[in-house]
Amino acid sequence: MTPEAGALRGAIAGCVLLASCGASAGPASSASQAALPVVPQPAAAQTAIGGIKYTGTLAQGGWLRGVAPPGTRSVTLDGAALALAPDGGFFAAFDRDAPRAVTIAVTAADGMSLSMPLAIIPRQWRIESVNVARRPGKLPDAAFKLRRAGELAQIGAARAKGSAAGGWRQAMVWPAAGRISGLFGAQRIYRGEPGAYHAGIDLAAPAGAEIRAPADGVVTLAAAQVPFTLEGHLLIVDHGMGLNSAFLHCSHLVVHEGESVVQGQLLGHVGMTGRASGPHLHWALTWNKRRLDPQLFAPGGR
Q1: Which of 38, 162, 167, 251 is deepest in the core (most CB within 10 A)?
Q2: pTM, to two decimals
Q3: What is the phi-psi region of residue 254: left when phi exceeds 0, alpha when psi lies from -120 to 50, beta otherwise?
């Protein structure tokens, strides 16, 4: 067996250790339960054969960070290649509705490949069933459709830009102070018809409160002059490896597209621009189009 193959076996062993050390899912909650759903906490870093270290929360809405052994040709998650940093570091994350198992595969320089399924902790989301029909929204006119199509194109382009930022390696900090007023994954069911789930965290911060960078990154979109129809003054910061933050409803922004920011740097201020009934910060995290739970990235809860 080559040294690379031995290291790969160690890597897979590390994956198994990580899959077994995640927090267990909380008990199911009824639609009327007032308490917040149980949030799995990040697992401690594990060291396996070959010195491979992994850390993360293997849960729906969670994440995984690791380092591939020297000589690795590729690392894939369910067949999709993961980007590798020069030191072999890689990042992956799991959507709100991720399956209960995914497969990670590592291929060495000599072509040897090993794969292993990873168990993903299912989550109990706040689901509220209401005995009312879903109210249809006001039909958008042609002008709104045209403007919205342009906004969505800008958002898609910003999230596709990517950068060499290293924020994906950091433990994130909360971008604003305030209680959580809207949970990630929360959803209403209208007489059996599901509404869209809440794809971020709402922080009930007062108007004008500071918004600070949760991790290092590069600004890929800053709607500073003209607010978007729904998101208002929208800011997107790329943290590298496909991971990015979006901050919605800001009153104004103090950073610009293309600017590099560091963790804790002032980005803007809380507002209620766009479609918002009151001042708050909506913080959303995505990785390669997967929606993630910010509570699993910023330690300490809220």
Answers
A1: 167
A2: 0.84
A3: alpha
Task: Say if residues 158 and 228 touch (Cβ distance below 8 Å).
Answer: no
265 neighbors 170 (Cβ within 8 angstroms): no
Distance in angstroms (rounded) separating the CA atoms of residues 81 and 291? 19
- Residue 298's nearest CA partner among 39, 123, 73, 37 is 39
Q: How far apart are CA 213 and CA 211, in angstroms?
A: 7
Q: For domain 139-296, say whether CATH 3.30.200.20 is its number.
A: no
Please name the helix (run of DSSP H) or strand (run of DSSP E) that holds residue 41, with its range, or none. Answer: none
CA 190 to chain centre: 27
* Helices vs. strands in the chain: H and E counts, helices first: 2, 21
C-alpha count within 13 angstroms, C-beta hemisphere, residue 266: 9
| Per-residue exposure over 91-110, b if at least 16 CB sit within 10 Å of its own CB, e if not | bbbbbbebeeebebbbbbee
Residue 195 · residue 187 · CB < 8 Å: yes
Residue 89 has which token pair?
């570091």
Cα separation, 199 vs 243, whole angstroms: 15
Q: Pinpoint the residues of the chain covered by CATH 2.70.70.10.
A: 139-296
pLDDT tens, position by position, for the chain (302 residues)? Answer: 554 445 444 443 433 333 322 332 332 333 333 334 556 655 544 434 333 567 889 999 999 999 988 888 899 999 999 999 999 999 999 999 999 999 988 888 888 888 888 899 999 999 988 888 777 666 678 999 999 999 999 999 999 998 999 999 999 999 999 999 999 999 999 888 889 999 999 999 999 999 999 999 999 999 999 999 999 999 999 999 999 999 999 999 999 999 999 999 999 999 999 999 999 999 999 999 999 999 999 977 55
